[in-house]
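FYI - complex with adenosine-5'-diphosphate, inputs then prediction.
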Amino acid sequence: MEIQRVILNNIGLFENLEIPLAPTEQNPSNITVFVGNNGAGKTSVLKALATSLSWFTARLRTEKGSGNPIPEDDILNAANAATIEIEICDSSGASDNPNQSEFEHHFKWTLAKNRIGRKAGYTSHLNDCTRLANRYRDALTRDDKTSLPIIAFYPVERVVLDIPLKIRTRHTFLQLDGYDNSLSQGVDFRRFFEWFREREDTENESGISEDLLNQLKPLLETNPDAWQRLNEFNASARDRQLTAVRTAIRQFMPQMDNLRVRRKPRLYMAIDKNGETLNVAQLSQSEKSLMALVGDIARRLAMLNPALENPLGGDGIVLIDEVDLHLHPSWQRSLCDRLIATFPNCQFVLTTHSPLVISDCKNVLVYTLTNGELRQLPSQYGQDANTVLLDVMDTSIRNEKINAELNDLLDAIQDSKLTEAQQLLAKLTEELPANHLELVKAKLLLRKQELRHANH
Ligand SMILES: Nc1ncnc2c1ncn2[C@@H]1O[C@H](COP(=O)(O)OP(=O)(O)O)[C@@H](O)[C@H]1O
Ligand SMILES: [Mg+2]
């Protein structure tokens, strides 16, 4: 299932905006990225997509289900009514009849909102949304292991809550719970933890717990065959859904392994980092947010695709606002590639402030938003971060004042005004770190000029 296009009418600051999403002919990847200054409208686009898709997940649950309405505050201030039109392509469950296929694969629905007390300007057309949801419900009725598409929105307010030590209520997690809070709250580590523990309890019931295994290890040292059989038995009892989550986390953070719940001395979530066992609460904010994000996507895919050997191959749509949030630059750089490698069949719509996110992946579709207008950018693949900052993000690479002073310094050196250059250099040396590249260069240039003058 993928969004081909969305058209916003009077939503946020957009009067009329049509946005085709990747994959397109030119950009065959599954990733669309929006960049733009604060207030450019990036979040509005993602929120509109989430609002529209919420009708699909609601109607998947019940035939006449209602999703989220367009909030009145989101209607363009000068307008009385707004619409979100969405075009979806979904080929699951369609017949092979080529005459039917165009109609069967293509879905288009419109969600409308009129200001209270105003005459209705637009009406909603949700027939196709119902038709699509019905198709999945029919399939579920025939086979309760049918794969469902992930639909998830991770807003900026996604937080990594503290991991609860006590879980008061035990939940049972069903397939459709793969959509729980998926369009409103986003990552909630508490839920992730509860789910993980629940699954792991079952896993341990059919396998051998880590604690027991550790106790058995010294006893079986003399019998390597038995030890190996025991480990093989345990591997086969591994829970498929947990394996998916662990695999996804390892793909994004290769130094992390074996996420698990430890029950002694007290309940906590443990992970091995470079071979050392840590409490997840001890990880950095950056590590925790990436883990929660990746783990949550993997968890939902695993729940929604009960029959897939590798649930990470499940399809669907994932929206992530400010994907670089809390992330270390080296992770920002490899993010798109890793998303594609780990979740090959998901369509991603991302927003970012980071040049690194868009400079390191081929074939992503990049848009900038300025003054309510959309512009597609040529590929930024392989560009260095400074160029992307200057070209795309319209931001000075350096602080303006420092930049001006560095330029003055270089001019002074060039013009052989040595005393002035020395003064400027002394001033900048106080302000900048000793290993500042431009400063080091300027020092060398000045030194060269001084020597040249001394020789005359
Ligand atoms: N109902 C509205 N009418 C007109 N402009 C709006 C409306 N709602 C929001 N905006 C404008 O849209 C901007 C919010 O855009 P947002 O999507 O949050 O930007 P970004 O995520 O790119 O920072 C606000 O700065 C505001 O100027
Ligand atoms: Mg925003």
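The chain has three domains: 1-149+315-395, 170-175+187-309, 400-455. Residues 12-13, 36, 38-44, 73-77 surround adenosine-5'-diphosphate (ligand 1) (CB under 6 Å).
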